[in-house]
Amino acid sequence: MKNVFCEFKASIKKCAGLVASLFFIAVFISQVFAADFQVQPTTMDLGARVKSGAFSVINNGNEKIDFQVSVQEWNQDEKGKDVLADTKEIVFFPKVMSVEANSQRAIRIGLKTPPSAREKTYRLFVQEIPTAKKATDVEGKKDIKAGVTIAFRFSMPIFIKPLKPRESCVFDSIEMSKGAVKAIVKNTGNVHVKLRAVKFSGKAADGKELFSKEVAGWYILNGLSNAYEAAVPKEICGKLATIEVNAQTENINIDGKLDVKKNMCTQ
User: In this model, does residue 266 exceed pLDDT 90?
Assistant: First the structure.
C-alpha cells in the first residue's frame, strides 16, 4: 500500500505537486480517500500561570480514525524554514489514539521545565495512521488505483511564554538588485511575531505609485529574521525613485524605505 502524507500547519497549507494532485482527485471522486477530522485549538500558549492545556481531535467522519501523536522543539534557520528536534521538555498524552466516528478525544499537554527569559517554541503533530482500503471502496473507480491512501498530519504551535514578554520587530535591511527588492524583518523581541503581510510600494519622483506587491507573512521566532522579496517589472523599475515597505502584525506596524538607483534594475 502506498501512503501519501499531507501536512497541515496552523494555516492548513495546501500540499504541492503530486501530493496535491492525488488529494484533489481523491476528494473529487470519493470521500473515502480523505479522513474528515480537525484539531482545535490551532495554537496553544503556556507559561508561568498556565502550565497545561489540551487539544481536541475531532472526527467528523463515519469511520474510526487512528492517530500517532508527537511533539518536537521548533526553531527556524536563516531562511525562515522550520527546524525540528526531539524534546523532553513537553509532556503529552496519549502518543497513539483512536477516535471513533463523530466523536472527539483530548491530547493533554504539560510543561516539564519552567518558563525562561525568552519564549520557547514547539509543535504538536497529530498524524493519521492510514489503513488499507477495501476493494469495495474503489470498485468502479477505474482511474484510482486500489491501495493508494491519503493521510494527513496536522501541526500546531505551542508557545511557552517568557516571564516578561516583549514583542518587537524591525527592518534589518532593505535592498534591491537585478530588479528584485528584498526586505529582511528581524524579530528583536523575546516572543514570536506573526506577520500578516509585507507590502512593497514603488513610487515615482512625484509620489505616484507605479508598482505594488503584497507578500504573505508567517511566524518569525524570537531573535530570528526572515526575508521577503518582490520582483519589479522591467518596464517599471527604471521609473522608480523609491520603494516603501510596510510590515504588520496584530500589534506592530513597521515602515521602511529604499531609494532606487538605476543599477539596481540591471538584470
Answer: no
